[in-house]
Amino acid sequence: MTRLPGERLDRRRGAERTDLADAIAPDALPVGVLALQGDVLEHARALAAVGLRPVAVRTPDQLAAVHGLVLPGGESTAIARALERSGLSGPLTARIADGLPVLGTCAGLILLSDELTGDDERLARPRGLAVRTERNAYGSQTASFDVRFAVSGIAGGPMEASFIRAPRIDAVLDPSVEVLATVDGHAVAVRQGSIIAMSFHPEVAGDHRLHALLADDIRRRAGR
Fold first, then answer.
1. What pLDDT is attached to residue 143?
2. 212: domain CATH number?
3. CA distances to 34, 99, 204 from 72, in Å
4. Based on the structure, what is the number of domains in the chain?
5. Does the residue 5 lie in any domain?
6. Which among 165, 186, 193, 219 could bridge 224 via Cys, Cβ 3.0 to 4.6 Å?
7. Which residue stretches of the chain have pLDDT < 50?
8. Helix (H, G, I), strand (E, B) or coil at 74
9. Which pLDDT score is estimated for 141?
């Protein structure tokens, strides 16, 4: 495992950016990116790259119209408060409980976790993923790092990922949770039913394979 502290793996992103509208098929399924705070644009690009139509979700009506949802990285407390203000908190909790395909990165993992450690447990969130997570477990912004590791069930070699003020999964609470990847003996990517969640940011390095897993689930449920 090679860590690259202080060196972002996304240096090539600028050269790869294209107009999203040019990359989306007319019949692509609409999939939301929660757009209240956090890394929205790169997730939208990742969804387009795997053949989905990204939709910014800021209201309950927008949430009701999508076949799946990405909960991006950002500041989990700020996102949780914005969910309440926007009226999305209740509808999002209900749709996740009803089996909405969801991918959560970093703060998204925190919001999906059934349990958080210490005082963070008081954070209002939709939940749905049977893990216990510790916020900022990998340190502050200056302790961010990049790493390459294998992800179970994903072909194509190791995944490049960025850990930025990253949470860590301290415990898996149900045997239905599949651990997809570990770093230093801790789970950093998991899957349970329709939920895929991870500590890191695959979209920063431009690796779309986890978004492709989400796309496969969405298409299967839609009969595509």
1. 66
2. 3.40.50.880
3. 7, 18, 11
4. 1
5. no
6. 219
7. 1-18
8. coil
9. 67
